[in-house]
């Protein structure tokens, strides 16, 4: 057997040094902004009635954590978000895979999605309240709607974008329908599916806040709305901050999950 | 014991006189365009059969029909079956056909897994062919970490590991640079010589055809027909570098080029 030439050696996946450098900048930019904000508030350059200093907001945050109020609202919102993602995401994933594989199904469903997708999701909150009432289900429904569309659209695209040669290989190597599904359609579409889930969770986070502002007595959206009604500006900012943190944390978790689920992607 | 040996001989004797692939009056039309026109050819067992023709002569269509990926408009293809548990054919595709989401090992094991082969068997066979293609060290690597030549080696290992009745190869080396190409051609022949499966190999390179083939079929352009069948009486194993100095090689290349020239010009006029 001949030896393998230098050009065929496995190349390193990424360079640690440049990644570490990027991470540093990623951290430095929001911290700098907060510092600027703090200084501007301290020196009276901005109106602290509307833009309280980050340190004041932080104090409020500690107070709300201490009283247990913040944790209660956060957990309520997270629970609704979780069920919305599951109940909207899973059917979207399955439907998307089938739509990608089946032209007829695609022809039937695609125009429906194209018609419904552009409706601003927040405008169907009243409809959700009408149908599901003021309980948990109307909030979960709103998140599910937000998650459903990006996931179904991206999954369909992901399956359609799979190079036709892989389907030919499956056929030539006698892969059954089930195996074609598991070894070609699903892994081939996975990068698109993960993008869909990420977009969906972002949309779900927006919608849970909106839904809780209108028809709820708990959750972060309710807390923010309630703070506006009682003119507790710091509390409002605490709510916004926690929602932002949830968003950042979920994005990071999903990125990690992607790295584990999609080890073949050249980064 | 002795009885089995007789059966085996009877089988192999029968196989020797019967063609491995019999293509009979095969035709393929796409709408009004005739791609293949009443093409008849027999490929013998253990033969390395190379089809040469300019682009657009329908050679890929012919191979896809043999692979069961396309259907013929008329005519038929018969593939002799020696053992029913072996798959009929496996294809080495043009370009990148190994799954990016599987490791080298999983790619090479794909066909065996799809056929539900026992794990121990998969381990032995895949191990053997990864060794033969020099990929053992890269078993856990993903395709994006490999060069073009290495990816095609995985494709070769994947096809051979399935032990098909016939092997189909669709310009497997066309995307490689000249040096990699020679290396892979030699490796392919070395692996093929282990058990000499029947091969149908497509190329547009005359030199590649002469280096690899037992017989070469030159095809006409639109509609694709048999223009000439040229036997290659060069002994195996072949040393590609040495071979290129011999007059037999030069004469064959010249003969096939002369036969092809007209078709290449014809194809150029059509596409222009």
Question: Descriptors for this entry?
Answer:
heterodimer; A: 267 residues; mainly alpha; MetI-like fold; 10 helices; B: 272 residues; Rossmann fold; 3-stranded antiparallel β-sheet; globular; disordered N terminus
Largest sheet of chain B: 6 strands, mixed
Using the alpha-carbon principal axes, give the shape of chain B. Answer: globular
- Proportion in helices of chain B: 40-55%
Helix content of chain A: over 70%
How many separate helices of chain B? 10
Secondary-structure content class of chain B? alpha/beta
Name given to the CATH homologous superfamily of chain B: P-loop containing nucleotide triphosphate hydrolases
Q: How many strands, what sense, and barrel or not for the largest sheet of chain A?
A: none
Distance between the termini of chain B: 65 Å
- What is the count of distinct domains of chain A? 1
- Largest interface (C-beta under 8 Å): A-B, 30 and 38 residues
Task: Output the radius of gyration of chain A.
Answer: 23 Å
Instruction: Please give the number of β-strands of chain A.
Output: 0
CATH fold descriptor of chain A: MetI-like fold
Largest sheet, spatial ordering of strands of chain B: 5-6-7-3-8-9
Radius of gyration of chain B: 19 Å
Nearest-integer average pLDDT of chain B: 88
Which CATH C-level class of chain A is it? Mainly Alpha
Helices and strands in order, then pairings?
The complex is a heterodimer of chains A (267) and B (272).
Chain A: H1 16-42, H2 54-67, H3 69-101, H4 103-116, H5 125-132, H6 136-160, H7 164-172, H8 177-215, H9 220-229, H10 233-261
Chain B: H1 2-17, E1 21-30, E2 33-43, E3 48-52, H2 59-66, E4 74-79, E5 89-92, H3 104-108, H4 110-114, H5 119-132, H6 148-160, E6 166-170, H7 178-195, E7 198-203, H8 206-212, E8 215-219, E9 226-231, H9 240-243, H10 247-271
Parallel strand pairs in B: 3-7, 3-8, 5-6, 6-7
Antiparallel strand pairs in B: 1-2, 1-4, 8-9
């Amino acid at each position: 057997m001949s030896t393998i030439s230098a050009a065929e050696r496995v190349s390193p996946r990424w360079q640690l040094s440049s990644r570490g450098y990027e991470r540093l900048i990623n951290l430095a930019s929001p911290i700098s902004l907060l510092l600027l904000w703090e200084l501007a508030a301290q020196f009276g350059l901005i109106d602290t009635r509307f833009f309280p200093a980050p340190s004041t907001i932080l104090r409020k945050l500690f107070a709300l954590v201490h009283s247990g109020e913040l944790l209660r609202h956060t957990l309520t919102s997270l629970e609704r978000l979780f069920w919305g993602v599951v109940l909207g995401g899973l059917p979207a994933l399955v439907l998307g895979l089938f739509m990608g594989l089946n032209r007829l199904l695609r022809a039937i469903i695609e125009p429906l999605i194209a018609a419904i997708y552009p409706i601003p999701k927040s405008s169907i909150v009243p409809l959700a309240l009408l149908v599901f009432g003021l309980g948990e289900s109307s909030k979960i429904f709103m998140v599910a709607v937000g998650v459903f569309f990006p996931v179904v659209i991206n999954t369909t695209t992901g399956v359609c974008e799979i190079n036709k040669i892989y389907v030919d290989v499956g056929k030539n190597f006698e892969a059954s329908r089930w195996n074609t599904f598991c070894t070609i359609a699903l892994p081939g579409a996975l990068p698109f599916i993960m993008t869909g889930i990420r977009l969906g969770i972002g949309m779900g986070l927006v919608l849970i806040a909106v839904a809780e502002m209108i028809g709820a007595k708990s959750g972060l959206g309710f807390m923010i709305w309630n703070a506006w009604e009682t003119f507790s500006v710091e509390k409002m900012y605490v709510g916004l901050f926690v929602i932002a943190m949830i968003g950042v944390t979920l994005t990071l978790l999903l990125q990690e999950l992607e790295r584990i689920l999609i080890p073949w992607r050249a980064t | 014991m002795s009885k089995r040996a007789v059966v085996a001989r009877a089988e192999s004797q029968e196989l020797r006189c019967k063609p491995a692939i019999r293509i009979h009056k095969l035709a393929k039309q796409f709408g009004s365009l005739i791609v293949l026109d009443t093409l008849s050819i027999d490929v013998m067992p253990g033969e390395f059969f190379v089809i040469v023709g300019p682009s657009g002569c329908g050679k890929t269509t012919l191979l896809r029909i043999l692979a069961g990926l396309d259907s013929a408009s008329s005519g038929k293809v018969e593939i002799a079956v020696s053992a029913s548990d072996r798959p009929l054919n496996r294809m080495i595709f043009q370009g990148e056909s190994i799954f990016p989401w599987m490791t080298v090992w999983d790619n090479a094991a794909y066909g065996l897994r799809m056929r539900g082969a026992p794990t121990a068997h998969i381990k032995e066979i895949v191990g053997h062919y990864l060794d033969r293609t020099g990929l053992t060290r890269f078993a856990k690597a993903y395709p994006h970490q490999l060069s073009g030549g290495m990816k095609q080696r995985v494709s070769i290992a994947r096809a051979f590991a399935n032990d098909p009745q016939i092997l189909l190869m669709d310009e497997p080396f066309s995307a490689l640079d000249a040096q990699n190409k020679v290396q892979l051609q030699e490796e392919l022949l070395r692996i093929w010589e282990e058990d000499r499966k029947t091969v149908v190999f497509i190329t547009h390179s005359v030199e590649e055809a002469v280096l690899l083939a037992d017989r070469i079929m030159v095809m006409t352009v639109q509609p694709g027909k048999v223009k000439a069948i040229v036997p290659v009486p060069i002994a195996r194993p072949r040393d590609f570098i040495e071979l290129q100095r011999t007059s037999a090689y030069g004469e064959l290349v010249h003969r096939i080029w002369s036969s092809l020239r007209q078709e290449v010009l014809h194809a150029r006029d059509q596409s222009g």
